[in-house]
User: Fold this.
Amino acid sequence: SARVSSGPWLSLSFKSNISSCQDFKETAEVIAKIGFKMFLGVTAQVANWSEDGTEFSLMLDENPLNEFVELPEHCKQLRYSNLLCGVLRGSLEMVQLKVDCKFVRDVLQGDDTSEYESASKRF
Assistant:
């Protein structure tokens, strides 16, 4: 039987009328420019590609999840925006892409930008 799934990727593909991405680089650009804009109201920049094209970073100058958040001293190690790693991983799994994602820089931790590193396990 056919399996119908729902979630961010399905919503993105229907709402933006995009066709299938041809490679991981195109996928990263669609996520950064269309997906983040559609679901978070901001765009991300794709940077730091590995030589083999299987790893990249998404950079957010503005992270709407941080807009009204201030971490108290005893919570300084909390990675508040880490949930976006799960969103990225889950969305890409819906189109049969397996990725690892980690949150490496955080404005709430004093960094100048928010950065997520993604690495493809299989494209």
Q: What stands out?
A: The longest strand covers residues 114-122. The chain has three helices and four strands. The two ends are 25 Å apart (CA to CA). Helices lie at 8-16, 24-40, 83-93.
